[in-house]
Amino acid sequence: MEGPSTGDEVTEAPDRWRLTGLAMREAARILRAEAASLMGLGGLRARTPKRLVIVPPDMRTCDATIADDIYAGYFVFGGRALATGGRSPFALEPPSEAWADILHGFSWLRHLRAADTALARANARALVDEYLREQHGPAIRKPSVAARRAISFLSQSPLIVEGADHVFYQRFLRGLARDLRTCTRAARVASRPLGRLQAAIALAYAGLCCEGCETLGRAATKVLARELDRQVLADGGHVGRNPRVVLDLLLDLLPLRQVYLARGLDPPEALVRAIDRMPPMLRLLRHGDGTLSHFNGAGSTPVDHLTTLLFYDEARASPLQRGLLSGYERLQAGRLVLVADVGAPPPPFVAHDATAGCLSFELTSGEARVVVNLGAPRERSDPLALPARGTAAHATLTLDRASSAAFTSDARGLSKLPAAFLESRFGTLLISGPGEVQTKRPEPLVLEARHDGYASGFGVLHERRLVLGAAGDALAGEDRLLPASGRAARGVGAVPAALRFHLHPSVRARRAQAGRVVLLGLSNGETWQYVLETDGVEARLEESLYLSATDGARKASQIVVAFDTAAAPVIAWRFEKLTAS
């Protein structure tokens, strides 16, 4: 397909001096953090716990039937499966990096606990013992995996240690201590702010749940409060703008608050604020099928986890309609829901998931997805991971097959050196993009937005107007290209452009009326149509991909409207329902 499969060009390569400045800032931060670590500043010192005193709850849903698969040596994680044939899964070559991370994170122990049988308990203890004895592979040393493993060991400790002998119990505590040491280092020196927050959460759990870790817990609480205030925005979004991060953080923060209360301690105010703010943001980003919007690195949604979180939301508030700090807007009329990305790029050091999808939107009718973005593959090493972050992978406008933002991978010449250093610390960062994004809601069902991501390369602004029908049976849209400041005298030049509307794989699409109309059959039985209202252009159906399915990438279609900006600087279109389900 055109777009993500072929890769986008970029509007312009990232500025060399900006890249160099960011690299120098990160190098200086590393030196300061390492110095503080050597001097033992901050009180983050992990000791071997004496014993476990409280078990934190685990809000992740579980399935006892998975325990049978694990007992049979069949491990299915991250969309990949491995049959061990009686060997230890920790001694085998993992089928993918994501699979290895999940295996070594041990969150799957909850399924064995749900089985609640002597066989499941014995199997869990044997697998943990195999891990404690093997202790090799790159996944073990990842701070994010160590943090997840520490929390999993604590929350599933009754399954692991009840009835165990003293030798195993001490080996288990020593293994936990190793993970806590990894987390103490990550909380100080990890490059990614999210990594520092995840480490602080794990350390706070340990400080509350383990005798002998009280000092560590008090220090971790301070780090936790600091990182939450820095990373959770006032509207409940995460500073990196990835919706899935909000979900995953809340799954850990809600039980952590309960543990503070169970120990007779007041949770830090930053924790309480974050927990209060995040559920309304999740509701803003949630569609009628129960999944989150696919923006800025969000892939598949564990619907059961999201449903559980929102059930425990004490406020049970209505969804936010505007997330001004996070850069998301929601329009809803009846069963028709639209969520749009109207945000500028996040700060560079948290932009490892960020995408060039400004002014893209997703549309759902009831439980049926209609328009989507491609989302993100499970594996960061997937060849489609970077193309899926380009503008062409989103339901928005592209100019000359260029993205509206640039990444460190786009660096050229002397810029490659600082870009390579940054990528070694963070992964591929979105490094430049729209400097100004303006939004207006003149009426509750009307969204008007504009961005300048194409101003420097093409001298134009992209403006989009979206209007939902009050009956929830239509979406009218208009995309307009305007001269950027200082370019008005020259006008909008002749540049090839394309509007893209990626369709969910469940949508059956068929062209009609010589490309003026595309008929759409939805999974809920409804029939819709896409109608072009601008003369001189037509809609084509092209291949696309949907990367956010729970079973991996799926083939899909996209509506593409190609046009010349000089001949048609304004494109009007609409989606409308023809028949109900």
Task: Describe this structure as you would to a colleague.
With 581 residues, this protein is α+β, with helices and mostly antiparallel strands. It has 2 domains: 42-316, Chondroitin AC/alginate lyase (Glycosyltransferase, Alpha/alpha barrel), CATH 1.50.10.100; 361-579, Beta-galactosidase, Chain A, domain 5, CATH 2.70.98.70. Helices cover 35% and strands 22% of the residues. It is built from 16 helices and 25 strands. The strands form 7 sheets. The chain has an 8-stranded antiparallel β-sheet. The chain has a 5-stranded antiparallel β-sheet with strand order 6-7-8-9-10, covered by helices on one side. α4 packs antiparallel against α5 (118-134) and α10 packs parallel to α12 (243-262).
